[in-house]
Amino acid sequence: MADEAETTSNPKIRTVPLDTPIIRGETKIESIQLRKPGGGELRGISLVQLGQLQADALHTLIPRISIPPLTKPEAMALEADDLLACGIEIGDFLLQNRRRTAAPEQ
């Protein structure tokens, strides 16, 4: 995951650099941080769909856990490579620590 996104000193927050920045007025957002989602932030979202990195599930969750907060239209406008990078980090958040450390190295 380290090549996809920089891990901050807080393991519950990941920084994802965007290949295609988000333009919000005169502000250019070149990276976003994602917080580890809590149960309430996952309401109405299928964990199976998140695990499969389905775009609709990611579009719903990213605005709930992003810093700066993205709007749903901004999340939907993310380029596919940036959406996938966010999805990979979200998927890693959903693994239990013991499963993450037990995963075989590739």
- Could you say which overall geometry the principal axes of the C-alpha atoms support? globular
First-residue to last-residue Cα separation: 12 Å
- Strands side by side in the biggest sheet: 1-2-3-4
Number of DSSP helical runs: 5
Tell me, rounded to a whole number, the average pLDDT: 88
* DSSP E strands, number: 4
Strand content: 15-25%
Q: Cα-atom Rg, whole angstroms?
A: 13 Å
Please characterize this protein's 3D structure.
There is one protein chain. The chain is α+β, with helices and mostly antiparallel strands and 106 residues long. It has one domain (6-96). 40% of the residues lie in helices and 24% in strands. It has five helices and four strands. The protein has a four-stranded antiparallel beta sheet with strand order 1-2-3-4.
